[in-house]
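Figure caption, in words: inputs first, then the predicted bound structure.
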Amino acid sequence: MFKLDRKLIISACVGTMFALSATALSADSRATNKINIDGGVSYPVVNSKTGPYWVNTQSANMKINNGRIPTANEIAAWDKDVMPDGTGLPEGSGSVEDGEEIYEAQCIMCHGDFGSGGGGYPALSKGNAEELQQTLTNNRWKDPEADGPTRVFGSYWPYASTMWWYIRDGMPHTKSKTLSVDETYALTAYMLNINEMSIDGEEVDEEYILDREKFLKIKMPNVDGFEPNIDGPNALNDVRKYYANPANFGGIKKEVSQRCMKDCQKSTAKIRRIQNGGIKDFLPPMSVAKDLPKKEASDMGFNVMKSYENNCMPCHGAEGMGAPVTGDKDAWAEVMTNGMDTVQKNALEGLNGMPAKGGASVSDNELKLLVDYMIEKSK
Ligand code: HEC
Ligand code: HEC
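Bound structure (heme C present):
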């Protein structure tokens, strides 16, 4: 069968995990929504970009600094992966029904109805996982008219443990690491449900309750769709053998079946280049500090409008989220009857569906500016 280069998957995962783990929270800081471990450097979301994605404009000039030994808490915050064999997966349970409820409250604004995606956010389902797995063999290299492969959780991911871990560690995007174990089970159950999957022959229907034992029986349709085989005691040799044979990888080399050092690319191949010299408007530049900071760096350029769009608009931008819509004079007049102090306090500490600070990595002062901005827009 058609095989996918597993190396790609791994590097993609490592990238994601880095992004997620860099915002790792200790249990204490979770309560206050502060993304800061042992006073370490934090990378708040600014202009919708998180630190790990910022271009390090200072790196060319930096002095060598070997950093410091991570603290036990920092290591613990990184070391929380959930493995296919169940390592790291806690006991707990959650139902599809609860998962749907949490999804509608916390995920739907980005991932769409039933995980349909859109608006730049990834789809979490496109229908029946087994059927869609078959589309992975569609090859537009060979048949330009064919539909491309549909790669979503159900059709593509080899292990459900990645899903559990991803949700628990990284979602919801604006306030990651706020979901409990049971909520994570419920959301994972819902993911299986919308991907029309079964566990051990039993359909994950609306009534289904997922727990650890059942979770470990999940078999993803595409579990064998990757190569080289990086599992087991012979992994290293398997990988070497695989890469020793160029016929195993690369669309072009597959045709010539030999190593190529010169003029390997077909002249007709389309090459995409980054336009206009690439990305350069990253602000603030990524920190190169490797020591514990003396004090919180809060002098990063703050753009109220952009921060509003990134952090508040997902819920306050339109009807239907249970939040007073920015620009709705009546709704905000009602909010303001409690007085400015209360409104600011509620925004800071959270209120019902409103997470503390709207789940945003902003300082108290910046939050005040955001609230003022919303009130001003609603006069
Ligand atoms: C504010 C928008 C937002 C919200 C809310 C949100 N997500 Fe996400 N989600 C994203 C973005 C952006 C990505 C892609 C991240 C990346 O690739 O680095 C993502 C990726 C994912 C993925 C991986 C999808 C894939 O195929 O790679 C899963 C699973 C997921 N989210 C589940 C959830 C769940 C469950 C919730 C609710 C608890 C949730 N998300 C809430 C924005 C959001
Ligand atoms: C996940 C959705 C969500 C996000 C994101 C969010 N809010 Fe809210 N917000 C709500 C909901 C829901 C309410 C209504 C709470 C209630 O009245 O019970 C609310 C209410 C408020 C209120 C009124 C509080 C009061 O006293 O009635 C303010 C002010 C506010 N939000 C500011 C913000 C700001 C500033 C941001 C961005 C930093 C933000 N919100 C992001 C959901 C959200």
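The pocket of heme C (ligand 1) is lined by residues 16, 19, 106-107, 109-111, 121-122, 124, 152-153, 163, 166-167, 171-174, 187, 314 (CB under 6 Å).
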